[in-house]
């Protein structure tokens, strides 16, 4: 894919650096570009890759000399200079497309997971189930390790299965993944500062199904149902319909085509949205031939992820739950719906152009008050105005924790589920979680 081409790697975060390392490993002629290359970064990269020139400033000027642009997820393919590059015959790809090309003639299976919410939990669960079932498993992508870094760590050695969490940003530059099984878990508003509208965002997610993949689709989500491909095996999962893999709300049992799988109460993960993630994970794993009895046994002991509807502790009967990884409206809606009342919600941060009005319906009658923090607190307050719930502005997260606790009674939940990115006040969602836990410990 890259041999005998002049390759420019744009965006020199962890993904871009892994692509340069791959190019160095296989002997491809490459260069690196970042709009803002610090002196320290440049010195570090020059030391690691002395054979590769580095550029910053105008991308348009640099692109003139290259055949292939390998784009990091943080950069959109829709920049005018990149569109011009493609129009004159330049090729734009991402690291996931390179991996797909490397694996196409090998026996390695690919399970690919996208969606607005739940993809990290589902990817972690699928990876865990594959490992426990005895497969040589690689978990990579949006979940942590860039895919080419994972490939290099293995020295290019074949794996039984690659479990890939893929964001819309990664799928933008992956025209043909050809996974064995793939899912889009759900679609809700996210990254609308990057896409024209929700439909445009959903179309990008749909690229995960390009190839032969067995499709695993959310029967409760209209956008996901619309991704159905003709002449393709399909499995559905649902929390509200008796279809394929589903939750029987009467018996409280997870079922497949009427057959009992396990009681919902046997799932260690908090919240009903995690039942949907478990159903999707089961469908994906069974699609690549894993044994059901083993899968059900391992689901019962899977503890889930930090910062994703995770119980932090209790103080005088008040339960504190950390959902700092809930960085969009859909995630926060899912957390509220999945937990029992009464909830005191802490939300806010960088809103990424989202509409917060979908929160109005789930707040009413279930949430006592919303404690708003961060740069987009006024925007959230405007969207939630007159929703029947008190909106309380707080300067800091510890202040929000203190004020929520002061209003909560024994049996209530204080929930940090920001529906926003964290970078206005914190180093990331994990740092936001640390501050929340510290504030809880100080009560």
From TrEMBL:
Keywords: ATP-binding, Cell cycle, Cell division, Cell shape, Cell wall biogenesis/degradation, Cytoplasm, Ligase, Nucleotide-binding, Peptidoglycan synthesis. One of its GO terms (molecular function) is UDP-N-acetylmuramoylalanine-D-glutamate ligase activity. ATP binds at residues 115-121. Residues 113-284 form the Mur ligase central domain. Cell wall formation. Catalyzes the addition of glutamate to the nucleotide precursor UDP-N-acetylmuramoyl-L-alanine (UMA). It catalyses: UDP-N-acetyl-alpha-D-muramoyl-L-alanine + D-glutamate + ATP = UDP-N-acetyl-alpha-D-muramoyl-L-alanyl-D-glutamate + ADP + phosphate + H(+). Gene3D superfamilies: Mur ligase, C-terminal domain, Mur-like, catalytic domain, NAD(P)-binding Rossmann-like Domain. Belongs to the MurCDEF family. Pathway: Cell wall biogenesis; peptidoglycan biosynthesis. Transmembrane segments: none annotated. Its EC number is 6.3.2.9. PANTHER family: UDP-N-ACETYLMURAMOYLALANINE--D-GLUTAMATE LIGASE. This is UDP-N-acetylmuramoylalanine--D-glutamate ligase. It is found in: Cytoplasm. GO terms for cellular component: cytoplasm. It comes from the Bacteria. The gene is murD. One of its GO terms (biological process) is cell division. Its main location: cytoplasm. Residues 307-420 form the Mur ligase C-terminal domain. NCBIfam families: murD.
């Amino acid at each position: 894919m890259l041999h005998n081409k002049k390759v420019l790697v744009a965006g020199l975060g962890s993904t871009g650096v892994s692509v340069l390392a791959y190019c160095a490993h296989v002997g491809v002629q490459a260069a690196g570009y970042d709009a803002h290359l610090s002196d320290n970064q440049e010195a570090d990269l020059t030391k690691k890759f002395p054979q590769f020139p580095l550029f910053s400033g105008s991308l348009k000027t640099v692109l003139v000399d290259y055949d292939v642009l390998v784009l990091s997820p943080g950069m959109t393919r829709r920049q005018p200079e990149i569109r011009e590059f493609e129009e004159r015959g330049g090729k734009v790809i991402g690291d996931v497309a390179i991996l797909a090309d490397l694996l196409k003639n090998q026996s390695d299976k690919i399970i690919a997971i996208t969606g607005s919410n739940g993809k990290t939990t589902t990817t972690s669960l699928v990876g865990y189930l594959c490992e426990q079932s005895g497969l040589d498993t690689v978990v990579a992508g949006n979940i942590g390790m860039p895919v080419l870094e994972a490939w290099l760590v293995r020295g290019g050695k074949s794996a039984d299965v690659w479990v890939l969490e893929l964001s819309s940003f990664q799928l933008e530059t992956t025209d043909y993944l050809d996974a064995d099984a793939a899912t889009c878990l759900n679609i809700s508003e996210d990254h609308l500062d990057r896409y024209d509208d929700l439909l445009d965002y959903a179309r990008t997610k749909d690229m995960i199904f390009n190839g032969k993949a067995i499709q695993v689709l959310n029967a409760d989500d209209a956008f996901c149902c619309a991704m159905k491909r003709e002449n393709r095996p399909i499995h559905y999962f649902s929390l509200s319909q008796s279809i394929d893999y589903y939750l029987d709300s009467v018996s409280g049992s997870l079922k497949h085509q009427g057959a009992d799988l396990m009681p919902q109460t046997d799932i260690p993960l908090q919240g009903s949205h995690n039942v949907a993630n478990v159903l999707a994970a089961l469908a994906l794993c069974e699609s690549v031939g894993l044994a059901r009895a083993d899968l059900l046994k391992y689901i019962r002991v899977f503890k889930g992820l930090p910062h994703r509807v995770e119980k932090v502790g209790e103080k005088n009967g008040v339960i504190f739950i950390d959902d700092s990884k809930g960085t969009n409206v859909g995630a926060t809606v899912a957390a509220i719906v999945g937990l029992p009342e009464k909830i005191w919600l802490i939300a806010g941060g960088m809103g990424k152009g989202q509409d917060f009005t979908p929160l109005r319906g789930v707040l009413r009658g279930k949430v006592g008050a919303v404690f708003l923090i961060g740069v987009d607190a006024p925007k959230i307050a405007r969207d939630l105005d007159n929703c029947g719930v008190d909106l309380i502005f707080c300067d800091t997260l510890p202040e929000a924790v203190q004020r929520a606790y002061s209003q909560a009674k024994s049996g209530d939940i204080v929930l940090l589920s920001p529906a926003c990115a964290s970078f206005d006040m914190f180093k990331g969602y994990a740092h936001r979680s640390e501050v929340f836990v510290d504030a809880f410990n100080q009560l």
